[in-house]
Amino acid sequence: MPLDPIELTVFANLFASVAEEMGVTLGRAAYSPNIKERRDFSCAVFDAEGRMAAQAAHIPVHLGAMPHSVRVARERHSFGPGDLVIFNDPYLGGTHLPDVTMVSPVFTPIDGAEVLLGFLATRAHQSDIGGMTAGSMPVSTELYQEGLIIPPLKLLEAGRPNQSLLELIYRNVRTPRERAGDFAAQMAAHRTGEDRLREIAVRYGPAKVVEAFDAVMAYTEAATRMALRAVPAGTYEFEDRLDDDGVSDEPVVIRVAVTIADGELTADFTGSAPERLGSINAVLAVTQSATYYVVRCLTGDEVPVNDGCFRPVRVVAPEGSVLNPRPPRAVVAGNVETSQRVTDVLFGALAKALPGRIPAASYGTMSNLTIGGEDPYRGRPFAYYETIAGGMGAGPLADGLSAVHAHMTNTLNTPVEALEFTYPFRVAEYSIRPDSGGAGTHSGGDGVRRVYDFLCPGSVTLLTDRRRYPPFGLLGGAPGATGRNVIEQRGGDAETLPGKITRRVAAGDRLTIETPGGGGWGAA
User: Fold this and answer.
1) Does pTM surpass 0.85?
2) Which residues, including other chains, have CB under 8 Å from residue 212's CB and lie 6 or more apart?
3) Mean pLDDT throughout 459-485?
4) What is the mean pLDDT of residues 3-16?
5) Which residue among 51, 80, 266, 459 sits deepest, i.e. has the most Cβ atoms within 10 Å of its Cβ?
6) What is the dihedral of CA 317, 49, 26, 22, to 10 degrees?
7) For the chain, how are helix, strand and coil distributed in percent, rounded to 5?
8) Is 310 helix (H, G, I), strand (E, B) or coil?
9) Please, where are the H alpha helices in 305-393?
10) What is the phi-psi region of residue 466: left when phi exceeds 0, alpha when psi lies from -120 to 50, beta otherwise?
11) d(Cα 143, Cα 79) in Å, to the nearest integer?
């Protein structure tokens, strides 16, 4: 018989709790500050058919793309108890190479036999996975420059680790000790998830769990369709742009036509820029992930996140475009920067349908910073990665929040104390950037100012945007301020840097990053 509302709520929360506890294990056991402190990882639970049944409240750009990862893993491998597949190929279910995905099955005993109950997936951003620059977030022109490409391979088989594969990976990264710790933390998260899902099956019975998987997804699908039916039917268009692709100064146009009818949404990105030489290309899974996130924002927090969210949504992105590139196009910035602009244009289009509900553009860039080199104090290489917060767009009810991560990123910052304990540089200033939010009836949130002093030579890579084109306001609200990157050489003048660049730094140099503010909402 169908699940009643109480059972539906109980199972939805049980499944989500599995993913949340996996995240707790991963965060606590990880070695790198990027995972331990910033929590740049995601965890999800899937049924035996590879449909996402639950996710933790982690990184939106990861989670909407993970169903593709599980589908590829199931297509490439047969799974038995104790197996685990690892990969990061963006063209085979990944997002960009630093995001390493693991997929494992969960079996439960039925009548003396082990029967497949579902799958677990984790994705964690590794602070280095090889490639042309420390931190593996380069201003690249092809995928091969961005790091070690790992196709879907079995890292564990019947619980036994593939030591040769691990040695190959560790030999191709700058910080093998850190990678070993983070990989072990990911595998521990899978063991936690397996234990918890099996406990649910023991308590309620495997058949009930399978029934609950279907019921929770069906409920979410119905709720998503209901939310879309509340949007006036029609086609709504919007376009915005990225500053450049890091190779040329030509802006990168992102264009969408959102059609809503009969409880379904089609996001057609035809007319967006063709694939580019620089690394701002976003694989289709990332474009889909950003679209799912925006639709998810229409349904409310009380609706579970699972495969049901995706069923009423269709994404059209022509092959060979910047939102559906062909290998081996560079994609490392597409995951972090282009996904933000996809979110912006989708909200911009929906603002025409729901002018009293949609907020102005948030800061629109993850302001990615990687720093690497040889740590003279510890006698080994280091690689640091951070996304830096900005201002949230104002909405119809309130001002935008200041100094937060918004939309496709959902991480924390690396606390200054943890950063200075781990790396050979110091944070001289970390503050809110006043008056960077756009004015309006409600003002956009302010960005931040973060200043780094280098204690040793190294290299710095910036993948940032909204340095030329500001976050837009809505209904008469002013745009937010653009961001700015400045380097001061010891004893020299300040130099404004491009949004996307790699350069050497010396001991005594200072880097200042000022992030954009959010757009204002309504005429002031």
Assistant:
1) yes
2) 3, 7, 8, 11, 15, 204
3) 98
4) 94
5) 51
6) 120
7) 30, 25, 45
8) coil
9) 332-333, 339-353
10) left
11) 29
Structure tokens, 451: 């200043």
pLDDT digits (tens, 9 = 90+) for 296-351: 999 988 899 999 999 999 999 999 999 999 999 999 999 999 999 999 999 999 99
Q: 């009818």: which residue's tokens? A: 261
For tokens 């025409």, what's the residue?
A: 352
* Cβ(216)–Cβ(304) below 8 Å: yes
What token pair was written down for 128?
Answer: 């280095």
Give the three-state DSSP class for 120: strand
Q: d(Cα 105, Cα 121) in Å, to the nearest integer?
A: 9
Vertex 277, ends 64 and 463: CA angle to 5°?
Answer: 60
Structural contact between residues 485 and 513, judged by C-beta atoms closer than 8 angstroms = yes
Q: How many C-beta atoms surround the C-beta of residue 146 within 10 A?
A: 28
* Sheet with 458-463, side-by-side order of all strands: 380-386, 368-375, 458-463, 500-505
Residue 125 one-letter amino acid = H
| Amino acid letter for position 370 | T
Confidence of residue 1 (pLDDT cuts 50, 70, 90): low
Q: What percent of the chain has pLDDT over 70?
A: 100
In order, the DSSP letters of 143-182 are GGGGS----SEEEEETTEE-HHHHHHHHHTSS-HHHHHHH
The DSSP call for residue 378 is: T
